[in-house]
Amino acid sequence: MDTNVNDQITGSDKHVLIHLPSGEMSIAERIPPMPKSQMTCYQCRAWLEYIIGPDKIRCSRCNAVNGVPPPKVDKGVCKNCRVTL
After folding, report:
1. CB 70, CB 85: distance < 8 Å
2. CA separation for the pair 36, 42 (Å, rounded)
3. What is the Cα gyration radius of the chain?
4. DSSP 27-74
């Protein structure tokens, strides 16, 4: 048995150990977090956090349906004249 093997799980590992309700252990692939954005509810002004993608989200406080603003896309700056594109 090699005593130099590191059995520690770190944040850079691509797999994690899962303790199942049956008491068994299983190995699962780590899933990267989904990108999120934030906005204010148009009706009650509550701060809403949501996974990027939907056109509308419902406020958990007042149930108002809010249109999600389009993502801000930075297209860069012209290298010749420095105008924002």
Report:
1. no
2. 19
3. 22
4. EEEPPPPPPEEEEE-TTT--EEEEES--SEEE-TTT--EEEPPPPP--
Q: Cβ contacts of residue 4 below 8 Å, gap of 6+?
A: none
pTM of the model: 0.51
Across the chain, which has 85 residues, the per-10-residue mean pLDDT values are: 57 80 88 88 95 92 93 71 68
Rounded alpha-carbon distances, angstroms, from residue 12 to 29, 32, 51, 80, 81 = 12, 11, 23, 41, 42
Q: Are 39 and 56 in contact (CB under 8 A)?
A: no
Q: What is the pLDDT of residue 21?
A: 92
